[in-house]
Fold these 3 entries.
Entry 1:
Amino acid sequence: MSQFYNCIAEKYDYIFPLSPAHQTFFADELQGHTILDVGAATGNLTAYLSSQGYEVTAIDLSERLIAKAAEKGITVQQRDMLTIDELSTFDNIVCIGNTLPHLDSKASVQLFLQKAYGQLTQGGKLVLQLVNFEKYFAQQQDDYLGNLPLIVNDKVKFERFYYLNEEGKIRFKTILDDTIENEELLQPIFADELTQWLTQIGFQAINLYGNFKKDPFDKEKSMALIIIAEK
């Protein structure tokens, strides 16, 4: 995962800016005082949440993303997301940006969810955001699952494609500015199984949305899957 993000670190903020919808969503949903930002990247969400008075701990694996955050005066710790049980407890744990599917198996995803439950204070919230993979599996042609929307502006062009390999993992191919090609394996995760795992672990009040504007989640149409679950 870190190699992939190291390659796009210089253009990351142009590819994935923090939108007003993000800000409104988190202003409405988070509670308490402390937040763990998992997969914090260049720290844009961390900086926003800090400006709103939260005490934020940010972690990521990519050295270059962490360095870009440091250039902006934002501290992001280099830490594997499966070691969050070594940290203190938090009122909120946030894991957005399709970070969760970068884990290497469904067992690892479930392990992270269990550790997140353990690190939340009672009544604390877990916020997850990932791609709605069911939409892409429904349109599969041979090994091709489709492309994500093109990201293009005066600073960057970022193309993204999904292919299914023989082991059931997604080959995530990207092309940055028509020159830098990269490929990463993703673990597909579906809404129903994710909801089931969260319920089995003990999470309650589980809500699903199709975007940060809180439109209802539709497995056939939604581009994203956003889940809020409470301990």
Entry 2:
Amino acid sequence: MAPQRISKQGLPTPGELDFMQLARFSFNLGFPMLLFRFSFPIQIVLLAFLAVPVSHAFAQRVDMSIGDEPGVIPNAADEQLSPQFRRQVVLYRSTEAPGTIIVQTAERFLYVVQPGGRALRYGIGVGREGFQWQGLLHITRKQEWPDWTPPPEMIERQPYLPRFMAGGPGNPMGARALYLGTTVYRIHGTNQPKTIGSAVSSGCFRLVNGDVIDLYDRIPVGTKVIVRQKPEL
């Protein structure tokens, strides 16, 4: 008969000690592995979320605190907008006549109503907080490569601005301007294409130069312009 191993004073025998160390080691190794197995799906979800492109619903909240940059001339690469802000025909339900311009400030889009429940949509930059407005106006004048005379209030906010700047590629008014009623507001181009989709202006609506040229060629003087803060339900 094999001899029995009896511990003194209830202490574990060497064999029991080896078993306990192994069990403890297994627990110490197994718990982190178990934790990793449960947390791994969460990590995958977080990585997938971070990899998703920022939608225009989120982008529309951006209020860029940058001033005008007179003299800066954008290159062709600068004017390549993200897909949602590129000019495109979309489905659009409206009771307005074809040719009407509808500006949806919250969406950062300008629509030109088309027949058949469609509209031509342009990505735009809008007024920053405190400079947004809504109303109904008409295009009263159009200008190619407009000059720029910043109003006194703008000069006060940005003292570095020139008091006058002739039209040209580096002019913040961009390639074209469509004047809204008798107000100081315009739909115009920009030399800052990075601001499309953001709230940055003093109340005007800006498009990249290629888009404002396209709009200018489509829209006659007298066109109805509706500016809305929120989309209609």
Entry 3:
Amino acid sequence: MPEISMIVPVYNVEQYLPAALDSLRAQTCPDWEAILVDDGSPDGCGALCDAAARQDARFRVIHQKNAGVGAARNAGLAAARGTYVQFLDSDDALEPQMVEVLCRTARQTDADLIMFGGYEEHYAADGTRTGCTDIAPVLEGVYRGDPCPQLFPQLSAMSLVTRQLFRRRCIEEGRCRFTDYKIAEDALFFVSFYRQHLHCVVGIPDKLYRYKLRASGSASQSYHPERLADNFYLSDAVEAVARDWGLNDDPACRRAVNHSRVLDLQLGIKNVCLGPLSFRQRTAWLRQALRIPAVRAAVGEMPLQDARSCNDRIKLALLKARLCAVVVALSSWNNRRSMRRRRDWRGGRCFPGWIFPSWAW
């Protein structure tokens, strides 16, 4: 039985998949298996996966009809045999020592969850790397007993499953699976995992994962009409954990819940401004969202300094003042600027990142 099962959902990444597979082959520790889930990819990804399996028995391939990244990861989980599970996106890459470091840490600590650092690389549409940022783990150290309630503020801030190692037994005992949501499905899975009674959580400073952001954008750059009626599913889940653990009156935990709530609101604003709705309809959606007591309370209680950037602080201040039309106008302008910037990337022009941050809403 391998120590680590790497689950790799694959769809329409023929240009980038070889680098991801090479980063697996380059691991200094051989104690892994890779489950490549071809999610009905229309390009040559399926053939690349099959070739990898023929060359190296540690690669296993599942071919299925296109069902989305969550369903692909679930198929990988069902097939996994390792003691631990790690997720690799098929257009990202691993550092060569990743499996070695994680296996050593797991043996030394008997951890149920290991969190680690990485790199966030930015690429223009022509493949040119435009920048790289170090990403630290949300916590460091070894926490035993029943540590998740005391770590709730840090755990609730984590949204990506790719920089974590999960004990597979805990995944199965908690019946943790990915949902059909197109955005934040990673974070929902993680909430379902950490809300269990884990016995050991570990954070290490090692940077082991390379997350590659490209100008072509992600799911958060597309319009999702389903979010109009169901926008706060992640912050609802986060708040439910805090409530079940009796943490609602803890200031740090309340601050974490509010932060999750405001992030959901930011994504919702960005989403309505990406879609075909009129300015009046967009503004009406935002006003309706602010009538939800939990959302209104989070906006009112969240300090401006907790916002991630100057852009976010400005819009949070406008939300506090209930200037919904101004927020919608700014977000619509940001989205248009983002699309124009991506077109300029494709045309060979590139503006500095500070003009329009990739996460701006």
